[in-house]
Amino acid sequence: MSTKIFHVYRTKLDIYEILEVCKKIKPETNKLIKEQYLEPVTRAIVSSMDVKATLTDEDVNATSEIKELKKQDLFDASCSIVVYPCLNKYKETKSLFKIFGGSKEVHDKIVTALSGIDFHYQNQVDQPEDVTDKEWNKRIEIWDAVLPNGSFLDNGLSYDFQRESHLSDFEILRAVRKHDLDDAERKKSIFLEIRMNEVLKKHKEDTGKTISMSDYISLRAEQVKDIESGKYDADINNVELIEIK
After folding, report:
1. CA 185 to CA 210: how far, in whole Å?
2. Which of 58, 88, 192, 245 is deepest in the core (most CB within 10 A)?
3. Does a structural domain hold residue 176?
């Protein structure tokens, strides 16, 4: 049976020490999580509003876009760790922990604060070069003892750095209204959608068929190349931007 255990670490800290460290680093970690969530979310919402205002007659407002984005569930702000006491005697290890959610930067911050050492395991490939056969086999022995039923959530204690998958509508709306996206880039994004709309319409008229995904990707790449070359600079400059409210 395939076994994959990733984003897991061992540490000399016991569960009480881990709790104290997590409480100490939570404000800064939570701030980073929110910043990394809001940047792409803001960009997606502003871009969607720009395009809808240009190509449709829909009523465009940030509140509706936020609700729509949350329905799509493309972004996730949640981040937590689950801690497991390590009863097996192994290199002074007192606890194991697994990180759920969060970016590499967030992971690095948590791992560093908890003095974590990589303790991943998978049985589809050979172990890393710096891990001996004995140590590799010991890892799965320990994980089998820690996770008797294979569940990460049932066998440990969880600590949330950011519990909810999304920030509040108010937090997102405030970020959208205060966005510092470059106007030139916004105009390019709008013009790309205008061009794609024209290209797809012509393709439908010429062939009577809906474009395939591979052809769509190729055509979009061609349009991006033309835009970046400066071919449409005059048209792009004439694109009007809406005020984000």
Report:
1. 29
2. 192
3. no
Residue 153, CA distances (Å) to 83, 90, 94, 97, 113 in order: 9, 23, 19, 11, 22
- Residues 2, 134 contacting (CB under 8 angstroms): no
Residues 104 and 10 in one domain: yes
- Decide: helix, strand or coil at residue 117: strand
pTM score, whole prediction: 0.82
| DSSP secondary structure letter of residue 212 | P
According to DSSP, the residues that pair with 95 across neighbouring strands are 11, 85
Asked if residue 177 belongs to a domain, the reply is no
Looking at the structure of the chain, the number of domains it has is: 2
Among the listed residues 136, 199, 143, 160, the one whose alpha carbon sits nearest the alpha carbon of residue 19: 160
Question: Residue 84 belongs to what domain range?
Answer: 4-169
Q: For 59-107, write each residue's pLDDT tens digit.
A: 888 999 999 999 888 899 999 999 998 876 777 889 999 999 999 999 9
Place of tokens 């794609």: 196
Alpha carbons 45 and 66: distance in angstroms, whole number: 7
Q: Are residues 8 and 116 in the same domain?
A: yes
Give the number of other CB atoms < 10 A from CB of residue 196: 17
Note whether residue 14 is domain-resident.
yes
CB 82 within 8 A of CB 100: yes
The CA distance from 142 to 126, in Å, is 18
